[in-house]
Amino acid sequence: GGLELSLACHYRVASPGAAIGLPEVKIGLIPGAGGTQRLPRVLGVETALNMIVTGDPVKSELLASLPGQKLLDKMIDGDLVAGAVAFAQGIADVRPLPSVRDLKVKHPNPDAYIQFARNMVKGMSKNYPAPIACVEAVAASLTTRNLDEGLAEELRIFRALMTMGGGITMNFLNAGVPVTMLEMKQEALDRGVATIRKNYEAQVKKGKLKQDKYEQRMALLTTTLSYDDLKNADLIIEAVFEEIGVKEAVFKKLDEVAKPGAILASNTSTLDVDKIATFTQRPQDVVGMHFFSPANVMKLLEVVRGAATAKD
User: Fold this and answer.
1) Do residues 71 and 11 both lie within one domain?
2) What is 115-142 written as a DSSP string?
């Protein structure tokens, strides 16, 4: 978030030795605050894509030395704050102000380069979705007409990456926990089950999972199109689209059918858990459970307590 915030500024300064990067891919995300669109504008698409796909930080002095870079306007030795203030005073009257928004992303052979990047990342990402999602988001900086269109595409990709009901389901099946998976349409339910089967079958084929274990896990899965089938659940995890209106409809319905004391959890990564809790008559039972993509692989879970969430 820090680098993305600075990319929205008119100028940027840094001290030697500062580590600069966008590490989101390491937790199964893409930079979601404009990083995939603004970094290519200031560093060029190849350098930016490498930083975003790997998530590795780069020293400020190396970035400052790149020909044509527009990320860093000045390297400051000594006191960074004093140097930054002095720099700001020196350019205070400069007009027009420079804007990353106005910079264009160029490449001599964009289609071939992006396809090369896709192939490379697919071969190295071991079925993790975030790295290839990073490629597609950065590709939008080349193919869209302006920054606003690129940001809209970044948001679309970010939201798609955060829709992970199948991975969350597998996470519990792997632990031997029975799961009831709810969808609103049979087609969506069929797709979800097919994805789970495909993932398990790939593990069986690679010798990472025995056939009988695969069958045992699938036997723990029940599917439904009715909220009523969740009435006896101890824990209900919502993993729908990141739109507050959609969340509201889901939690109001869960509030109607869930048994007293059931934990109502949202997998949201961007929305306010306190706001979501207001959609129910039981805010003490509402919590955020942010899984990271892919949920069945990433051993990381962020539990977000709301202001009213009960201690137990």
Assistant:
1) yes
2) HHHHHHHHHHSTT-HHHHHHHHHHHHHH
What does each of the 312 residues of the chain score in pLDDT, given as a tens digit?
Answer: 799 999 999 999 999 999 999 999 988 889 989 999 999 999 999 999 999 999 999 999 999 999 999 999 999 999 999 999 999 999 999 999 999 999 999 999 999 999 999 999 988 877 678 899 999 999 999 999 899 999 999 988 887 776 678 889 999 999 999 999 999 999 889 988 998 998 899 899 999 999 999 999 999 999 999 999 999 999 999 988 878 999 999 999 999 999 999 999 999 878 899 999 999 999 999 999 988 877 888 888 999 999 999 988
CA dihedral in degrees (250, 252, 257, 260; nearest 10)?
A: 120
How would you label 52-71 residue by residue, b for 16+ Cβ within 10 Å and e otherwise? bbbbeebebeebbeeeeeeb
State the Cα angle at 255 between 254 and 257, rounded to 5°. Answer: 65
Active site includes 4?
yes
39 within 8 A of 51, measured Cβ to Cβ: yes
Q: 312 in a domain, yes or no?
A: no
The verdict on 279 and 293 lying in the same domain is yes
Of 161, 180, 202, which residue is a domain's last? 161
Distance CA 175, CA 165 (A): 16
The tokens for 23 are: 């590490």
C-alpha distances in angstroms, 29 versus 6, 38, 155, 163, 245? 20, 17, 12, 11, 23
Ordered DSSP codes for 46-57: HHHHHHHHH---
**Four-point Cα dihedral 198, 203, 204, 205, nearest 10:** 90
For 212-232, letters b (16+ CB in 10 Å) and e give: eebeebeebbebeeebeebee
Q: How far apart are CA 112 and CA 238, in angstroms?
A: 40
Question: What is the CATH number for 130?
Answer: 3.90.226.10
